[in-house]
Design a protein that fits this description.
The protein is an alpha+beta fold. 23% of the residues lie in helices and 26% in strands.
Amino acid sequence: MVRVLCLSTPAASLVKSSSLLTVSAASPPRTLTYYSLLATSHSSIAPLTSQSLLPVQSRRSEPSRNPFLSSYLRSIAVTPAVTPAIRPAKFSSPSAHSDLRSPLKSRACLIVAAARPPPRASARPPPSRRAQSASRQTRQQLQSQQQSVDQHQLVDQHQSFDQHQSFHQQQSMALAVQPALDTLSSPPLDPSLASPTLDSALSSSHQPLPAPLLSNPPLSIAPAASSHSRPAGSDSAMPLLPSVSISDDRQLVANGRVVLSDVPPSLVLTPHTGAAGESGAPGVFLGTRFRDARSWHVFQLGALRGVRFLCCFRFKLWWMTQRVGSSGREVPVETPREGAECGPVYVVLLPLLDGSFRAALQGSPTDHLEVCLESGDPHVCTAESLHALYMHSGSNPYTIIADAVKAVEERTRSFLRREDKQLPGLLDCFGWCTWDAFYTKVDAKGVKQGLASLAAGDTPAKFLIIDDGWQSVAADSHEDSSATITVGTQYASRLTDLKANYKFKQQQQKQQQQQQQQQQQQQEKGEGREGEEGQEGEARWGDKGAEGRQGGEEEDGSSALGEAAGMVHGLGQVVREVKAAHDLKYVYVWHALMGYWGGVRPHASSMQQFDPSLVFPVPSPSILLNQPDMAHDSLTLNGLGVVSPAKVFHFYDALHGYLAACGVDGVKVDAQNILETLGAGYGGRVVLARGFHEALERSVAKNFKENGVIACMSHNTDGLYSAKQTAVVRASDDFWPTDPASHTVHIVSVAYNSLFLGEFMQPDWDMFQSLHPAAEFHAAARAVGGCAVYVSDKPGQHDFSVLRKLVLPDGSVLRAKLPGRPTKDCLFVDPARDHKSMLKIWTMNACSGMVGAFNCQGAGWCRDGRKYTMHNPDPDAVTGSVAAADVDLLADVAAREWSGDVAVFLHNADELVCLPAATSLVVHLHRLEFELYTIAPITVVGSVAVAAIGLTNMYNSGGAVLSVRTSTSGAGDAGACGAHSSAGVAASSDADMGEARAASATEAGEAKAKEAEAREEEAREAEARETGAGAAEATVEAEVRGGGTFVLYASRQPVRCTVNGEEAEVVYTPDDGRAAVQVAFRAGATSSLTYTW
């Protein structure tokens, strides 16, 4: 049986409703099927044809309000897509659409598919010489037939292959086929496999990835013996040959494992010519050609049957979430990533951007995996897309995802991966956001109260996000009364001025007095430069108000209010005050990509310099397969105020320049996916997205330090494949404090989305509230997520017992080194709705790994109700296991001679366990329960086994350990962790692992030996006699950040311990080997601990 891990993101923007529009239509020849990850039933999938799209729109009020919509829908009527039968020799001619330079943009969905070989396949004998000869004759006949077809003759892909073979038979035959990439020097098995040209643009689509073997597979099938399979039960990685091909019987094969059957003859495979990556197997690009040039195409890849998959898809216009299934019909539209597991092999499919088009994956009622291509502009058409997808395979799902994204980066040069970007400094600080505390009612007084309230509990915020509510906005006076707005009137409001509104003004007389006092103090201290810059900046922007900024305020009434109260703009004053009072390092403010939710007000005098116009959004047909949310309806019917693409950089530069002059350090840019609905008339969605994102990043680089930008509501590939600078992205839908059904779904979504998003940017798992029924659940997830930690508490409403497990007294956090991702055994289960599976998330610290186990069962997204729903208010407890193997990179921080044994600390249970290699711990969790496991490799030093756990009073105990060095006085030998920087694990100590380490270890050993000889204390001699005469002295040195109870696992009690050179009491527990020492917090400094035996 084949098991597929499908991480799919929506091909088109999904609206907030994850439910499908149910249309009463006869079974169409071609359907676009959208499915929701959190739907209560896998079978509740409603197909929709292009013919049924028009009636959907016709039910909207006054469709004439949107001049682009009807013509666009007519231009993309989805008839059965056909692809040409083309000879490879003809591909060298340039495409008629080669001028479309920007890569095709689609949802970044990844499908990881894992397929097991059929039973008894290992006993199948190799093909005979006669069979090989017949196979060669068959290939020659195929090539001869193909050469007789004219280059421009097209065939309907629905008529070209047999759909009645059994899946197991297809698998068996595929196993006898050598991988296509093994024979690139010889004629391909199918003429359509070869493509001599590599289009510079990629189109987004789902990538199938092979999933890892489950501990309890649906069928007990031993892996087939082949030249590409590992022995059963072997976990060791083996080199995988380039082996993605199409077999003679039309099966897509990856490393000897069948991924898709019924592959159309017109599918074109183009080998990747760059580096193979760590997985050792270069991938291929997939594409095809079409009968007509259109702005919307759908073509088939092949049938996905009997394969468990995991996909990340967009269930709303703005956001992705995950879903699992076992057939192609369950793959939703708007899937940017998909993967499958074929025995020990993982396969990943990434939809790409190809020219001005973007790709996404979707399923069909016949279980065929399809690719949807669209430009977003009815006048931007193409008849071919040869690089719509990228497919990669290997033995490790995390490695092949990283290698696949790296290969796409090398090909397109349109974006950078996370590891090549500058991460903002706020990630390592604790923060506070004003949103859930005040929503749009935020003002200067509330900002000051919130910061002071957190500081009073010794958990001071060091970064602040002033969310929606600070800008000068107004609603149109002639809004269409037929437009239904249920999510908030802010969607119908537009930006009228770049400056802050009246709530961030100060009384003029009071402000002048404060400015005079500050100037005198700064002159005395010689620290007046920053304050003068902020005041001059606000004055400079105030002077520009003569030409329209006053006009904008008159429209929303704030100008009159300001004049009556004798007030002036004071955002800069507020920023300066809170920075000085609370030693804030970073202040960010919120704004939408288009300025505000409804864009800018086209007729506002202050906006005229940016040439704005009213544009009506045109949702993708894939989005229309789900009923759009009311906010999106409002935008579609009332239009969006869009600045001219030629002036967009000037708009951002003006806005960010004002903010920078006020002392602001960065921006959180929301509602980014709205761009995909505005491509008509601007060259398409991909071209428009590239222009806006390039302008945004140029402005951020010019006006803010440390890459100060956070992307939000941006889960489409248009933006991901266009981001060269943006390094932080929100990973899921919002934290909804008043919706009890949303919290488990939130944790599931951020974890699975990080599999894909984490390759592009640092996932942001969003804010939460510390005084909340699910506070600890969210806090534990942030600890294992490797993400920013910030809350949206109301002033005076905090649970400091939760916050102190995340935040150090100086406002810093112990952030893990990697984004948290699901463990291998969770890739193909549904931890939110299958009533039995727990979610396990793993990450890395400098010297240890970490696993978080969560019971997220009981709730999901309801497509019919378009909301999170409790399908089981009291779900059963779930049982699982945790092992060292759950931490994929644990060996990278272990000693070279590591045996596999680990010490495991359970945070909630407060237990320390020594776990031998290849064993696991059983975990039993009830609803909304969790457990955090710090897993540290055990190192043998002399006659002592040790492992550094960390500060057990913190959720991320191991995050406190920056480095560990071990030595023995007898041998002068040493081991260390924290100096490794393998596979993205950041080093926390010196990187020199050669002579420098040996030299320092020798010096440390000699120093300890002399110290021992000098002391010659009776207690130490007695301890030495008890533990064995002649045993070599062992020393462990650890560098620690933070304060509290530091725990070291030790097989016997240390003789002595020092903290920063001073003697410290060690509380040793022989039952579990816990050696605990109290460490005082040192602001701005680390502590050095030395244990001696």
